[in-house]
Specification:
alpha/beta; Transcription Regulator spoIIAA; Creatine Kinase, Chain A, domain 2; 3 domains; five-stranded mixed sheet; two-stranded antiparallel ribbon; 15 helices; 48% helix
Length: 365
């Protein structure tokens, strides 16, 4: 195994070529390299695994150990250019959620763009918040309706994500120009008015200079439908009972983790303009699956999305076990209904007593 390193800003990029295995000593070499970097003060380490051909159990264990060591030391270790074989291994061993990883920036961007493209359809499918103050609101997703009235600078569908050359830099540039809420020092929140983070970096605020922690806090105050963090956060669905929560994970996994399913999902919405997407986002909270996009009912598009996700799961490692989790979605979409419709029917049966809905609709394991 060969290890090379280079520095880009405050990030140390470690490129590995060869096998990370016990019999070739790759696990020890990796451990020693990461420990050495941490002792030298490197806090942000990026492991480029594009040249790794094989990882055995010892090597996998060492990846977990060095990630933990970096985290315990106040640093971070992320993976990039993860090969399909290694990614499959991480999925099978349930370690895929331990590491912050993308196959590449292009992979992450493709997933984000697709997720932004179909997010309003997902909102419609999972609509489950028709009440406020114990009474129907007229919306199937009151949660989604509320976001329509919230600070457009930081919410919704940023137009740049649909551009062909969209990348991480575009997201960062957008975030730099979103007005800040506050600056936190010693646990105290100091309100900030009409100041972007870009300006904060240039001018400071009340004698305080911008820090990386300030940037992290600022990013947490942005609420687009799909949020870029160390992972891709998908924010479009209402909470619901456990069968729907499980279905949501299966749906997104099937749509985004399988390249063919992702491409098929994007094809459903690729031709629509930003204005059409925004109009759909505003129609969905009230109309749910009765809303239309380009003359097509969302019920029809939802069924195609589920079909794509199901096919994607069938191709993914361990995906067969997740396919049955889509069952509630098949039922609702085929009927053109959502959980909100059933909630409203239960409300009528309960003669307007919302407390009687809790046993059926609360989130339970």
């Amino acid at each position: 195994m060969q290890i090379e390193q280079r520095v880009s800003g405050d990030i140390t990029i470690v490129t590995i070529n060869g096998d990370i295995t016990l019999n070739k000593g790759g696990d020890v070499l990796l451990k020693d390299k990461i420990h050495s970097l941490l002792q030298q003060g490197s806090k942000k380490i990026l492991l480029d695994l594009g040249g790794v051909s094989y990882v055995d159990s010892a090597g996998l264990g060492q990846l977990v150990q060095v990630r933990t060591t970096a985290s315990n030391g106040g640093g971070s270790l992320k993976l990039v250019h993860v090969t399909k074989r290694l990614k499959d291994l991480l999925v099978v061993t349930k370690l895929v959620t331990v590491f912050d990883s993308y196959e590449s920036e292009a992979d992450a961007v493709d997933k984000m763009r697709t997720a932004y493209g179909v997010t309003s359809i997902v909102t419609a499918m999972f609509a489950a918040s028709p009440f406020a103050d114990g009474q129907p609101t007229g919306d199937k997703s009151f949660r989604a309706a509320i976001w329509l009235e919230t600070d457009e600078d930081r919410c919704g569908l940023p137009g740049f994500v649909f551009k062909p050359d969209f990348g991480f830099r575009d997201y960062a540039e957008w975030a730099l120009d979103v007005p800040m809420f506050f600056v936190v020092r010693d646990g105290n929140y100091k309100p900030v008015e009409r100041m972007s983070f870009r300006r904060f970096m240039a001018e400071g605020f009340e004698g305080e200079a911008a820090t990386l922690r300030d940037w992290e806090v600022h990013l947490s105050t942005l609420f687009p439908e799909v949020r870029l963090k160390r992972y891709i956060e998908l924010r479009g669905a209402d909470a619901g009972p456990m069968p729907m929560a499980a279905a949501l994970g299966a749906l997104w996994r099937g749509l985004l983790d399988d390249a063919d399913a992702r491409a098929a999902a994007w094809d459903l919405v690729a031709r629509h303009s930003l204005a059409e997407r925004e109009a759909l986002r505003r129609e969905v909270p009230r109309a749910a699956l009765r809303a239309t996009l380009g003359g097509r009912r969302l019920q029809e598009l939802a069924l195609e999305l589920i079909r794509n996700a199901d096919a994607g799961l069938a191709r993914l490692p361990g995906g067969e076990a997740d396919r049955p989790l889509l069952a509630p979605l098949w039922g609702y979409a085929a009927a053109g209904r959502t959980p909100a419709d059933d909630m409203l029917a239960d409300f009528d049966t309960a003669r307007g007593d919302p407390s009687k809905l809790i046993p059926r609709w609360e989130l339970q394991p």
